[in-house]
Design a protein that fits this description.
Elements: H1 10-23, H2 55-65, H3 68-82, H4 103-114, H5 116-121, E1 123-127, E2 131-136, E3 146-151, E4 178-180, H6 188-203, E5 212-217, H7 228-239, E6 246-255, E7 262-265, E8 268-271, E9 273-282, H8 296-309, H9 321-332, H10 342-350, H11 355-368, H12 371-376, E10 379-387, E11 397-406, H13 412-429, E12 433-436, E13 439-441, E14 452-457, H14 475-489, E15 498-501, E16 504-506, E17 522-529, E18 544-546, H15 547-566
Parallel strand pairs: 3-5, 3-6, 6-17, 7-15, 8-16, 12-14
Antiparallel strand pairs: 1-2, 2-5, 4-18, 6-7, 9-11, 9-14, 10-11, 12-13
Helix pairs in contact: 2-15, 3-6, 6-15, 10-11, 14-15
This protein binds 2-acetamido-2-deoxy-beta-D-glucopyranose (NAG) (3 copies) and zinc ion (ZN).
């Protein structure tokens, strides 16, 4: 997963797990009990959900999943997929015009060879050559299909660091604990686990009542425009608007650093928006022995100072994801993590008339866990700066790019206006003319001799904050939560005294940014613990996944397909 533009987002994603871990931390308690509290007003929790009509099938598969033959063949399937280096690059030309895409052909051929039963039973459709849609027809056409998604591509390996990998970057080898290599986690773990699940269900003779569709993009780590964007158009055309019961894509997992006993699972229910603002100052050139008071570089510096002095302010809204996550944190965090008054304050803050309580709650929350401040405001970061070409020459151009992650309650328009509101008085003061996002603005001087400020969308990658998947009284959120709990509870891996499912907000964007029209129930969740997928970092050297975590993913997808199949 990655933001729209160039920087790795997974590190951002993981940041929230890390930060949550900070308050889930002390003594380990043996034996997994499950927190279920449907009556909690702050953070209602459902019971673990096990298949009933398919109970016997579910048990049979589970037994098989724990067998050594199944494990080693699964590790082998994931490892072999890792060996195909499906790297995506920011500068790829469209499919058909760039032979760096050819490796996806190899990958597709691999999948077909590895899962012959799937390819002969499901309807397999390719979209834009390498995008894959697998349609598993259910017997009841009145039920909306379940859509599971993942991406085939990986971020490139930095070969200058090759010697720092414990196993070669594309080894795909299993060392007895870990499956190694780029893509072993992000995102071939999800993709191959979904296929192994479907294959196992087919072999067991399962016939779905509800149609199941799998869709695999192939440039999520770049722009997504060749893969998911084309898949989205196909899916909307073939199935219709709002045609799916739910979409499950990659995302956060669960914080398993359970010294205090509670596992927090964090399905993502929305994503921040994205905007790279370009700020350029154009000024007359000249010899630097007769400089003006400020060169374009000096002016840009002043403007950046003003921008940083005026950050977007955090705002906790009652209907936002940060507030929902905060209520879960307050309700279920271990004793002592928050001030004693927090629960009471949270209850009062829920009351639409008690603005003072909401204000107090925000303040206390941000100071207890600063990460909630990040979730609650549009962040801005000046990431790039250019200007000047030679000493003795006045710089005719200076430019900066400011990266924004837009809060749920805001918009790209609000971000543009925020910059504009700072720039206009500045332009007047320094006698500059302004072109703001395509619009010419004259600040008292039609064409300034002194220069011009140009504001624009740097890479045309602007993205509004996503719609928020509802969680209150949403049956499908309950099915997902119940499945997470039943998968954890019936596993022998955990020593914790509870599982809490809490909604989370993505700071980066996944392929789901193209899928908004397909359903209102979009969840971003990969069933892995925070000890399972970070051996040494991600999107970096030594990507590796714990083998038994991979089996847990397969158990999760199996339980989910069966549970969704049984639900109405
Ligand atoms: C959420 O609340 C904010 C302010 O409290 C409001 O402006 C916004 O329209 C609400 N959004 C939804 C989807 O209800
Ligand atoms: C800016 O413009 C005003 C008139 O609009 C003029 O009085 C002032 O001298 C100008 N300043 C500079 C630095 O050119
Ligand atoms: C979603 O639907 C709207 C309205 O029909 C359309 O304009 C838009 O392009 C669609 N979005 C995507 C990502 O397909
Ligand atoms: Zn990913």
């Amino acid at each position: 997963m990655k933001p729209i533009s160039y920087r790795p987002a997974f590190s951002l994603f993981c940041a929230s797990l890390v930060l949550l871990s900070l308050w889930i931390n002390s003594e380990k308690i043996l034996g997994l009990r499950i927190t279920s509290d449907p009556d909690s007003t702050l953070c209602p929790q459902v019971e673990p959900l096990f298949p009933t009509a398919h109970a016997e099938l579910s048990k049979r598969l589970d037994t098989m999943y724990f067998s050594e033959t199944f494990k080693s063949s699964s590790y082998q399937l994931l490892g072999a997929s890792v060996q195909i280096p499906t790297e995506s690059y920011d500068d790829l030309l469209p499919v058909g015009q760039d032979d760096r895409w050819d490796v996806f052909k190899t990958f597709n051929i691999y999948l077909e060879g590895a899962f012959p039963l799937i390819y002969s039973t499901l309807k397999v459709i390719t979209v834009n050559t390498y995008g894959l849609v697998l349609h598993w027809q259910g017997s009841d056409a009145t039920l909306k299909p379940l859509l599971l998604t993942a991406h085939q591509d990986v971020v490139p390996v930095d070969w200058s660091n090759e010697d720092k990998w414990v196993h070669p970057p594309y080894s795909g080898s299993y060392d007895g604990t870990w499956i190694w290599g780029r893509g072993s986690v992000d995102d071939k773990a999800d993709l191959i686990a979904q296929l192994i699940t479907v294959n196992s269900l087919l072999e067991a003779g399962f016939q779905p009542r509800r149609t199941v569709v799998l869709a695999f993009g192939f440039d999520e780590e770049a722009s997504g425009t060749e893969g998911a964007e084309k898949l989205a158009a196909f899916l909307e055309e073939r199935y219709g608007k709002n045609a799916f019961a739910m979409i499950l894509d990659e995302g956060e997992g669960y914080a398993e650093n359970v010294k205090e006993g509670t596992i927090f699972a964090l399905p993502g229910v929305s994503e921040k928006g994205y905007f790279d603002a370009s700020i350029e100052i154009l000024a007359p050139g000249g010899h630097s022995s007769i400089p003006p008071e400020h060169t374009s570089i000096g002016l840009l510096s002043l403007l950046i100072v003003s921008l940083e002095a005026n950050p977007h302010l955090p705002r906790l809204t009652r209907n936002g994801t940060a507030f929902a996550a905060a209520k879960c944190a307050v309700e279920h965090a271990p004793e002592g993590r928050f001030p004693h008054s927090m629960k009471d304050l949270a209850h009062r803050a829920m009351n639409a008339h008690d603005e003072i309580a909401l204000e107090k709650f925000s303040k206390a929350l941000f100071s207890s866990i600063p990460f909630f401040d990040v979730l609650s405001h549009t962040t801005q970061a000046v990431d790039l700066i250019t200007g000047g070409i030679k000493t003795n020459m006045l710089p005719q151009r200076a430019g900066a790019i400011v990266n924004h992650r837009i809060a749920e309650h805001s918009s790209t328009l609000e971000v543009k206006n925020h910059i504009k509101d700072l720039v206009l008085p500045f332009a007047t003061r320094y006698n500059l003319s302004v072109q703001a996002f395509g619009e010419d603005i004259h600040c008292g001087h039609k064409i300034s001799r002194l220069g011009k400020i140009v504001l624009s969308d740097a890479f045309y990658s602007a993205l509004e904050p996503s719609p928020i998947t509802p969680i209150a009284e949403n049956h499908l959120y309950d099915v997902l939560s119940g499945t997470i709990k039943s998968t954890l509870q019936s596993s022998s891996r955990y020593e914790a005294d509870g599982v809490v499912v809490s909604p989370s907000l993505g700071l980066g964007n996944t392929d789901t940014r193209f899928y908004w029209n397909l359903t209102e129930n979009i969840f971003r969740y990969s069933h892995r613990g925070d000890r399972d997928d970070v051996y040494n970092g991600m999107h970096t050297i030594n990507e590796a996944l714990r083998g038994d975590a991979f089996i847990e993913e397969i158990r999760f997808f199996t339980m989910l397909i069966l549970n969704v199949d049984e639900s109405h």
